[in-house]
Amino acid sequence: MRDRTHVLRRAFPVTVPVLAGYIFLGIAYGIAMRARGFGIAWSYTISSLVYAGSLQFAMIEPLRLAFAPVTFAFLCLLIQARHLFYGLTMLEPYSRTVRAKPYLIFSLTDETYSIVCQGAPADLSPESWYLAVSALDQTYWVLGTVLGALLGSMIPMDLLQGIDFSMTALFLVIVTEQTMDALEAWREGKESLTDALFAPVLGGTATLLSLLFFGKDSFLLVSMAAMLLGFAVKYRAEQGRKQA
After folding, report:
1. Half-sphere exposure in the Cβ direction for 215 (13 Å, CA)
2. Residues 151-169: tens digit of each pLDDT
3. I want to staple 97 with a disulfide (CB 3.0 to 4.6 A). Which of 7, 127, 147, 197 is the partner?
4. Residue 29 near residue 36, CB atoms below 8 Å
5. Do 154 and 54 share a structural domain?
């Protein structure tokens, strides 16, 4: 027990940035769930068993509709597909873990990955370090969710209108920052303008056209499938040019 406490103390300062983000996003999620009529138990259970911020926000509306397993499974795959790629880099480190491996795989979020991919301190067991970081990060998220659900139960429902836009706002900020970074790379001559603008243009175009032709109930799956197809075509084209 003393060793676990020591590892948690060492891991806590490293995870403070995640704490700051997860608490506020978790609160927004808990309030959004409450605004849609789901209580604390629902928010706590989903954050504990699903633990995927963007997917959890996307799940709020489908939870109120008739269950469509195929559509929902496809939605989960598209939203969380990025885990397949950066999770590959943790195959070797996590292969050396024993008891904690299932939980480490389950709890590998974007923010947790940014910490554990740097490796464990030399004087600590890698498995105990990975477990401490992963457990702390999920604790922050669940705590934020519960706080949000509690706040949502105290705030009049008419004041909660629009709270579910918080995740959309987060995505907009991320896209803006990534686009600015890509344009900066273009100005520095590191990549072409076409490559710099490919992702935001593809994403924006696919989303708008899908919304126009398929409506707000179906555009998400269609737009994400179109984006995946666009990136696949671009990748094949690049590989063809390299082989030529």
Report:
1. 2
2. 878 776 665 566 666 656 6
3. 127
4. no
5. yes
* Count of residues making up the chain: 244
What whole-number distance in Å separates Cα of residue 135 and Cα of residue 129? 10
Whole-Å CA distances, 234 to 52, 178, 182: 28, 19, 17
pLDDT in tens, 169-194: 656 766 777 788 788 888 888 888 88
In the block, residue with structure tokens 């506020």: 24
Residue 78 lies in domain: 2-159
Q: Report the half-sphere exposure of 237 (CA within 13 A, side-chain side).
A: 7
Give the Cα separation of 218 and 190 in Å (integer): 37
Distance, in Å, from the CA atom of 80 to the CA atom of 181, rounded to the nearest integer, reads: 23
Please answer whether residues 160 and 37 qualify as being in contact, where contact means their C-beta atoms are separated by less than 8 angstroms.
no
Total domains present in the chain: 2
CB atoms < 10 A from the CB of 126, how many? 15
Last residue of a domain, one of 125, 159, 193: 159
Type of residue numbered 159: L
Tokens of 82: 């990025």
Residue 124 tokens read as: 């600590």
Could you give the dihedral angle defined by the CA atoms of residues 164, 170, 173 and 176, in that order, rounded to the nearest 10 degrees? -90
Mark whether 175 and 131 lie in a shared domain: no
